[in-house]
Amino acid sequence: MRRIAVTGASGLIGSALVRSLTADGYEVVRLVRRAPRSADEVHWDPEGGDVDAAGLAGCHAVVNLAGAGVGNRRWTEAYKQRIRAGRVHGTAALARAIASLDERDRPRVFVNGSAIGYYGETGDRAVDESAPAGEGFLPELCVEWEGAASPAQEAGVRTVFTRTGLVVSRHGGAWGRLFPLFRAGLGGRMGDGRQFWSFVALHDEVAAIRHLIDTDGLSGPFNLTAPNPVTNREITAAMGRVLHRPTLFAVPAPVLRTVLGEMAGDVLGSARVLPTRLLESGFRFAFPEIEGAIRAAR
User: Fold this and answer.
1) Which terminus of the chain, N or C, has fewer Cβ atoms within 10 Å?
2) Do residues 212 and 129 make contact, with C-beta atoms less than 8 angstroms apart?
3) Is 38 within 8 Å of 31 (Cβ atoms)?
4) Is residue 232 pLDDT above 90, yes or no?
5) How far are the Cα atoms of 53, 155, 194 from residue 150, in angstroms, in the given order?
6) 110, 98 in Cβ contact below 8 A?
7) What residues contact 279, with CB distance under 8 A and at least 6 apart?
């Protein structure tokens, strides 16, 4: 049971997780959309809802991190459908494949990616896993995304939902686009800067996923966010301090709405999310503060 299957293994979080697992001697099985080229690859078609279930047999865990990037482009109706198809259909296909295996061959745990978009706009109000879903595209997507895992849950497989915040890394995600701007002295607050951004260092994201895999009895939603969320204004100041650059520029809210369309609501919206269940489970963050997370990522 030293085998772990990972979807999205080439993405920001997936590639870091694969490096961590292989460094500790785990055999990682990568789910790929093309024809497999080696014994450690398994074919799947997330949009089409197809998975080679036999390739999951004997794995200790399945970690689902696949999906088109939410912040990669403007949210046209076609792109929103693509976001939904990859996450919801892909999760449902994995859950059905897991449930179809004989009990002795089933993974012990299914870790399914999710996002703090589940909570929608929270303003200054702090929320944890006990809070209900918000309203809008992202909350509705997250509810459906998590619900698609029900076949695995009904088959008795321990199922975990990782509601991830904004991952601090210079290699990808939102921060991957921020670092070059701030290094060039073009960084600044977005809108009025009062909106809370719940962040997590990439190191802590991977460590938390491994903690959830390894700790028996943990199931359901876990917020993968540092315990000290900060405002966009505070993040802007921290980026300036760490990178030794001015942060004079600001992007007004109307400009963001014009450029980003519906997605601007996610950038300008406030999500003050706390990792209550993760802390209660005994997990400790290496980078609980924003400045430490930025320094680790630069």
Assistant:
1) N
2) no
3) no
4) yes
5) 17, 8, 37
6) yes
7) 227
Model's pTM, two decimal places?
Answer: 0.94
User: 73: phi > 0 → left, psi -120 to 50 → alpha, else beta; which?
Assistant: beta
pLDDT digits (tens, 9 = 90+) for 182-218: 898 988 888 889 999 999 999 999 999 999 999 999 9
Q: What's the rounded Cα separation, in Å, for the pair 258 and 146?
A: 31
* Mean pLDDT score, 149-173: 95
Q: What is the DSSP string of the chain?
A: --EEEEESTTSHHHHHHHHHHHHTTPEEEEEESS---STTEEEEETTTTEE-GGGGTT-SEEEE-----TTSS---HHHHHHHHIIIIIHHHHHHHHHHHS-GGGS-SEEEEEEEGGGG---TT-EE-TTSPP-SSHHHHHHHHHHHTTHHHHHTT-EEEEEEE-EEE-TTSHHHHHHHHHHHTT--EEETTS-SEE-EEEHHHHHHHHHHHHHSTT--EEEEES-SS-EEHHHHHHHHHHHHT----EEE-HHHHHHHHGGGHHHHHS--EE--HHHHHTT---S--SHHHHHHHH-
| Residue indicated by tokens 């607050």 | 189
Q: Are strands 196-197 and 166-168 parallel, antiparallel or unpaired?
A: unpaired
* Residue 74, CB-side half-sphere exposure with 13 Å CA sphere: 7
The residues facing 45 across adjacent strands are 50
Q: In angstroms, rounded to a whole number, what is the distance separating the alpha carbons of residues 35 and 45?
A: 11
Does pLDDT of 18 surpass 70? yes
d(CA 45, CA 48): 5
* Digit-coded pLDDT (tens) for 113-122: 999 999 999 9
User: Residue 12: what pLDDT?
Assistant: 93
The candidate with the shortest Cα–Cα distance to 154, out of 114, 195, 106, is 106
pLDDT at 69: 66
